Input
Amino acid sequence: DGGITQSPKYLFRKEGQNVTLSCEQNLNHDAMYWYRQDPGQGLRLIYYSQIVNDFQKGDIAEGYSVSREKKESFPLTVTSAQKNPTAFYLCASSLGVADTQYFGPGTRLTVL
Amino acid sequence: KNQVEQSPQSLIILEGKNCTLQCNYTVSPFSNLRWYKQDTGRGPVSLTIMTFSENTKSNGRYTATLDADTKQSSLHITASQLSDSASYICVVFDSGNTPLVFGKGTRLSVIA
Output
């Protein structure tokens, strides 16, 4: 069953704690992305990776970190430095940056 | 600055009626434009992708148009159904080696 998965669907954390969101794809895509979506807002790019062991900052990278040790996986860590971490986080992948992106189901993070 | 502006911000229509969503962009150089549908709490799903040379492309009851000269695109939905209720997002790729530019979306509500 091919696709892109994110886990968990809902996540609650206390303020000041780091939290890691999972993103896995078995589509053999080179490029992967993390977006943040706030109510009534468009998607904003946090980080993206065009190839294994390489990643680039997006528009709102402060307070976030990523790794790309495997082609299939692109985890996102929300650190305590992120001022407003409560949001809906979407992961996506594509063959290359010019190709159609396929999105995961999202993780809704709530920081209490 | 590359921007994608969508209108209207929200729209309510009766089931069975048609509607048209607008997208204006300033992204340059232009490579392609995509329309995505995002159900509440889910990841976006690609509806159509249009390149510079394409004026019209259909996907079932969805028809997208592109005028690369005026930098405008529209998404026309025919004979709307309740399941069409979602946010519709216009996304533009600038042919550089960078990720996409997202619009904020139009929130469509189809009511019985």
The longest strand of chain B covers residues 86-93. Chain B has a mean pLDDT of 92. The interface with chain A takes residues 31-32, 34, 41-46, 49, 89, 93, 95, 97-100, 102-105 of chain B (CB under 8 Å). The CA atoms of residues 13 and 85 of chain B lie 10 Å apart.
